[in-house]
Design a protein that fits this description.
Pfam families: AsnC_trans_reg (PF01037). This is Transcriptional regulator, AsnC family. By secondary structure, the chain is α+β, with helices and mostly antiparallel strands. The protein has a domain at about 1-40. The chain is about 25% helix and about 35% strand. It has a four-stranded antiparallel beta sheet, covered by helices on one side. β2 (about 25-30) and β3 form a beta hairpin. It is globular and about 40 Å long. The N and C termini lie close together (about 10 Å).
């Protein structure tokens, strides 16, 4: 399962938050972004409970103020259908 997470944090703490998120299990990509959200995170595991656990830990990272989770739907014609 792949889930993308868009996170917001307290301004000025982005680099610190990104470093903490990188340490979390099942996180395969983390990038700072501009706009309504501050950080883009890709979480991936074959076990949905591990994805849920990682997202819970991400929400507990100091200075994270909010998240939006976007789970990928397989079979909808996206690139993950080819994996």
């Amino acid at each position: 399962m792949i889930t993308y997470v868009l996170a917001t944090c307290i301004p000025g703490n982005e680099k610190e938050v990104i470093q903490e998120i990188k340490k979390l299990p099942n996180v395969v990509e983390v990038n700072g972004i501009m706009g309504k959200y501050d950080i883009f995170v890709k979480v991936q595991s074959s076990d949905v409970t591990k994805v849920d656990s990682t997202i819970g830990k991400l929400r507990s990272v100091p200075h994270v103020t909010g998240t939006v989770s976007i789970p990928v739907l397989y079979g909808q014609g996206g690139t993950v259908d080819n994996e």
